[in-house]
Amino acid sequence: MTAKKLFGIGKGTFKCFGEDKAVRLASSLAYYAMFSIGPLLVIILLLAGAIFGEDTVKQFLHQQIASMMGDKAGTTIDSMMTARHFSGSIVTTIIGVATLIFGAAGVFGELQDALNTIWDVKAKPGAGIWAYIRNRFLSLSMVLGLGFLLLISMVLTTAAEAASHSISGMFPLPDFIVPLLGALASFVVVAIFFALLFKYLPDVKVDWRPVLIGALVTAALFTGGKFLLSLYLGKQATSSSYGAAGSVVVILLWIYYASLIMFIGAEFTKVYARETGAAIVPNQYAVPADQDASGNKKKGDDRGQVEEVPPQNVAPVAAVLAFVVGLGAAFGFRRRR
């Protein structure tokens, strides 16, 4: 790919970023995430804790969050994870768990809507209750998938540390090797998460090649942006300006800036797919954003660049989602034992 084409992709990325009002989308996502982060972390803690133990997972999450947002934000997140309490009758417990899952899946529903806006599609009019159930199931699958990826991250980090210590016993190794291997493992997990996010969450069909390229670029932007955000948000002065609500504001700011980085990556994926000639079509649950209720293109709107096609087989997607949900159920069963 020539430098001119790369420049065109970069220019198109930021042009679409402005046209899609991604700043507003990030603000909305940060608002929803504040109400979903508690239930989301509790579910992740239950899934990962079934393998490594809750205390180990809680310590791992605290270290990761404190390194990005500061100790006060880490303490606030700890209180969210510790606040869960299931007691009383079976009906009360079931209602509590259902509310927990619904709250955790809410942020992915908002994220799906934002990614549909970026990909220039919208929900098909009159889709009915089935489309709503399908979207909730997809959001729940993303929640369980996030817990599974946390398991992978912990396994890779533990394996990297064990391998480096084993090798250092035979050969001297520099001190930066262990952190470097941990950062590499984290990068791989983040890239996998963005690839699954861009491939399955929005209501479009796109080839794997642009999705993987976009996921790697987004993971690189996210890793670099995470380091820069930790330098700014991790300082005491950032939270002290807001008094008692400082830790909550820091969490909100971090989610907002991280969402901006993710949406830049999503815009890059879309522009890269179009520039390389990859097919981008709405799935059976969506239509192009420039199409009105009667199926005609809106006048004066020339941004629609996706082409509607008849419904196609979605068995591969269903298989992936069923695998993730089944894995989450297995973790839950092992924990109950």
Can you describe this structure?
- Helices cover 75% and strands 4% of the residues.
- It is mainly alpha-helical and 337 residues long.
- It has eleven helices and four strands.
- Strands 1-4 form a two-stranded antiparallel ribbon. Strands 2-3 form a two-stranded antiparallel ribbon.
- It has one domain (36-291, 312-336).
- The protein has helices at 3-19, 22-52, 54-69, 71-82, 90-118, 129-168, 177-200, 208-233, 236-240, 246-275, 315-336, and strands at residues 121-123, 204-206, 280-282, 286-288.
- Mean pLDDT is 74; it is low at 300-304 and 306-337.
Q: Based on DSSP secondary structure assignment, what is the total number of beta strands?
A: 4
Poorly predicted ranges: 300-304, 306-337
Average of per-residue pLDDT values: 74
**Number of separate helices:** 11
What is the end-to-end distance?
Answer: 54 Å
Task: Kindly state the percentage of residues in helix.
Answer: over 70%
Q: Strand order, main sheet: write it out.
A: 1-4
Question: Measured on Cα atoms, how large is the radius of gyration?
Answer: 21 Å
The computed structural class is: mainly alpha
Element order, helices and strands?
HHHHHEHHEHHHEEH
Number of domains: 1
Given the C-alpha coordinates, what overall shape results?
Answer: globular
- DSSP strand content: under 5%
- Please describe the biggest sheet, giving its number of strands, its sense, and whether it closes into a barrel: 2 strands, antiparallel
Can you give keywords for this protein?
two-stranded antiparallel sheet, 4% strand, 337 residues, mainly alpha, disordered C terminus, two-stranded antiparallel ribbon
